[in-house]
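Hi R.,

Here's the chain you asked about this morning:
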Amino acid sequence: MPKEKGTYACGLDAAVDVVGGKWKPMILWALHSGRTLRFGELKRHISGVSEKVLIQQLRELESDGIVHREVYREVPPKVEYSLTDLGQSLNTALLPLGLWGDEHMQQVIANKVKADNGSNNAA
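And the predicted structure, written out as tokens:
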């Protein structure tokens, strides 16, 4: 649910509102470096996302000014997605987070396995 104008507690609150959820950062990453992708191409880049959820997330990113949607009036209709300048700057801000994930992925996975095994043993 979008927040009303001026209701953010801080900049991080605003940023998380824009990229919150599992799929939005993945959409941003797929569109990195000025890439333009059609819907089907974008869906192939984001493993596990449903068509319905991808459409919803793209609409939210478009309304936030992060993603540009270009519709070509042809048969069959062609729609392409790309990042706006605002989206490019957001992707630049996400780069250190992605690098952190690459560097610590194995530890994160190990911690999740350990936590899952602990909760299974407690049951």
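DSSP finds five helices and three strands in the chain.

Let me know if you need anything else.
M.
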